[in-house]
Every structure is written in structure tokens, then in C-alpha cells.
Amino acid sequence: MSPSTRTLTRELRLLAAADPAEARNRRTRLLAEWRGASAGLLAQVLSAAIELGTAEGRLAALGRESGELRARLRDAGLSLSEAAGAVDGDAPVSAVAEARARIVGVSAEVGRLPVAPPRQEFV
Q: How many whole angstroms separate alpha carbon 95 and alpha carbon 19?
């Protein structure tokens, strides 16, 4: 797998955890500049990276300590890394669909977590 594809995916995932809108803008720019034949696969992998990063950022913002969800997010991240290899032909194309399914599942779980009400301080 090309380190550059893996690096792009990891960087976009980290950016999405902090600023999903900026991550989507960066994905758009990356795809416009991409010269490889596998632009469709790259688009899928980068979209999955944004979805995973957004879920990681949401879980962190909620301040939840869920070992099970963190483990599932970590596994989804490993699947994403393998899927990035499909862009370079180093992994089967099916790895993208498998990673996407895993990411969608854990992201939906994080999305269903209740948001804690804002703290009200009385003076």
C-alpha cells in the first residue's frame, strides 16, 4: 500500500474529528487533483475516513468512556487502512465495502448516543 494513500486517509480522518466541514472541502480538493485511475475508490475511502473521524470526534466531545465503542472505532480504523490499499491495488476492492459497512455501523451507534444537556451554573 502506498504510504501517501494511507497518510491522506489518516490525516483526513483526524481533520474530520475536529472539523468535518473542512475535511469535506479537503476531500473535494484532493479528488480534483487526483491523477490515478482509481478515483472512484479513493472517493469512497476518503468519505469513509470523514465519517469515521466525525464519529470519533463526536464520541470525544460527548466525553463518553465506552471501551466497546472505542474498540469498534479502532477496528473500523484498521479496516479503513486496509481499504486504502485498494486504491493502489494492494488490497481487494471488497475491502472498501467491508470497511464502509463497519464504519457506518459504529458511526450510527455513536450518533444514537444521547447528548448531555449543557451544564447550568447558578451564580
A: 26
